[in-house]
Amino acid sequence: MENVSPARTQIVKVEDRELNAAVALKLLSRCEPLVTAPNTVVIVDLGNVRFIDSLAVSCLVRLAKKLTDSSRLFLVGLSRYARTVANVTHLDEVVEICETTEQAVSRAAA
Questions:
Q1: What is the C-alpha separation between 71 and 89, in angstroms, rounded?
Q2: pLDDT tens digits for range 69-97
Q3: Which of 19, 23, 25, 33 could staple 56 via S-S, CB 3.0–4.6 A?
Q4: In whole angstroms, what is the distance from residue 11 CA to residue 105 CA?
């Protein structure tokens, strides 16, 4: 049986209160190399974010589409508004969403 190394976990915290076009593009450039690396768990902490625009949703979908077979992308800490946006846009169907970083780490390890 082939040895598989455990996944690396990378946590990216968005400090801004709005995940608008400018912030989303920075997030995309920071996370793209992470999600394309094999065997990596990327957790994007949106705990400070209170507003998400459509370009931000598009950037998150783009990240999800770049995942390798062995990498995973989680969003954590979504506000009620951000959770509604994720549901309405079906973002929650392409990105894994958890309440906390700990929950995402636990789910990734399972």
A1: 23
A2: 889 999 999 999 999 999 999 999 999 99
A3: 19
A4: 10
Residue 106: DSSP 8-state: H
Q: What is the 3-state secondary structure (H, E, C) of 44-99?
A: EECCCCCEECHHHHHHHHHHHHCCCCCCEEEEECCCHHHHHHHHHCCHHHCCEEEC
**CA dist., res. 106 & res. 36, Å (int):** 21
- Cα–Cα distance between 69 and 13 in angstroms, integer? 24
pLDDT number for residue 3: 35
**Which one-letter amino acid corresponds to residue 9?**
T
